[in-house]
Amino acid sequence: MIDWGLVLESTKETILITFISTFLAYLVGLPLGVILNATSSKGVHPNRIFNSVLSIIVNVLRSIPCLIIVVLAMPISRAIFDRATGKWYTMIIPLFLTSFAYVARVVEQSLSEVDSGKFEAIRSLGASNSQLIFKVAIPESAPSLIVGLSVTMVSILGYTSFAYNIGAGGLISQIWTFYTRNTGNYASEWMFWIMIIFVVLIVQIVQELGLFISRKIDKRRKLR
Amino acid sequence: MIEIKNVTKQFEDGTVAIKDISLTINDGDIYGILGLSGAGKSTLVRCINGLETFDSGSIYYNGTLIASDKVKVSRDVKRKISMIFQHFNLLDQRTVLQNVEIAGELTHQKDRKEKAIDLLKKVGLEDKLKSYPSTLSGGQQQRVAIARALMNNPDVLLCDEATSALDAETTESILDLLKRLNKELGLTIIIIAHQMSVIESICNKVAIIDHSQIVEQGYLADVFLNPQSSVGQKLIHAGKVATKLDDKKLIRLIFDGETDIPLVANIVQDCNILVSIVSADTKTIDGKSYGHIIIKLPYYDEDINKLKKYLEIKKVKYEEVVL
Fold this sequence. Notes:
Chain A is mainly alpha-helical. Chain A has helices spanning 4-39, 48-63, 66-72, 74-81, 92-112, 116-123, 129-140, 142-159, 171-181, 190-217.
């Protein structure tokens, strides 16, 4: 028997958690990535000490296991939503905290792909550092940033599995719940497979859409 | 006028990039800076527009100090001293027109679009406004870069190996364009190259850099005719005498703008010596012949003396080539 109501509800929760967390992660991670890139030795404003310190902070944040962050974030969720468990939105703060440092690295990587000669050329026209960032670094790496966004979103989708631990719902959490309740015969239940197919579909759509948009906006000659 | 005074730069690893270089570039000059790869010519030019800093010395522009170990080249000065590059460095995600416009965007010029279109017409790309750089040939990309460099009405254009990634024909067309801009706009041009051919076809003055130092500088004709430094001789006569000849005499006939007769044919006719040409490299600069021809003749003292006498009568400079 398939509980379509639960499948659709869980899908909605998964999509909401993933998109809102990703959005918040980029809100902080994008500027952080830009700063990491700008202060690196090949950036527009190299600052070795600042860059090393920031880099270490980002690494430390990335090293904390997601489950720990889920627990540590509970007081914050409680302060914002008046509750820390049981609803999909209680998963947003922990996922945001887990992901923004990752986003910073993804963004930094994309920006570092821009050839330094382009910066020199525009700098030689009298550009300021912020003009170099907004007119060269970000627009020139846009196709790569879009691919990074879809990869990040898939990775955050994977992290929604931790919603199981605080009863925050979502597809992956429901799949695990279903498994624990039907350990003997879960593999012969349609409900199990339908939920898995939905997860696969979301991953496919996010990933392929990212690649499609990236290719669409990229004005470099396509090598194929 | 750009005056470079005693500029020295060391890289972080301690290697000397440029050492005590002094150079004056006058308004309207097309100044060539020649040197082998790694000689320091690129670093020197990048010091002028602040893409590199240096450790001591100073650079003056129209009498004002623009760069020293303490003074950084201001953004206003950068706009007056533009630059083009070996790999063009266009922005791939912008159209040709947008690539040129960016220079005006930086200073919020209102008429930047019209100006960019005008400049693209000047460089012969008015039909490519909406194209993206990746669809253009190397020569076209460099033309876009030149148009971009002209957006701020610069007085000086620095060319860092600007034709090194281009084939011979395209190189010539880019050099013609630069020559035209020099004449029409009074643009002072500083050209870095490792090939003499680029320098000799466009420059009026040249400096040769070797091992981080200037070893020779002056008017093109003087340096070209009679290079004093070993690297100068190497670059100017590079690869021109390929074979080693036994029992033959090689004589270099020097054209310094005074001789303008069919000299080799006359030697055969008047002296009755059978000479053959080993290598020839002459250029016409301002309607006069410059350069040299190396001729080979059998090793008979009699013939050689006859030839020397003939050349002296005709007032042709010559020297024996020792291989």
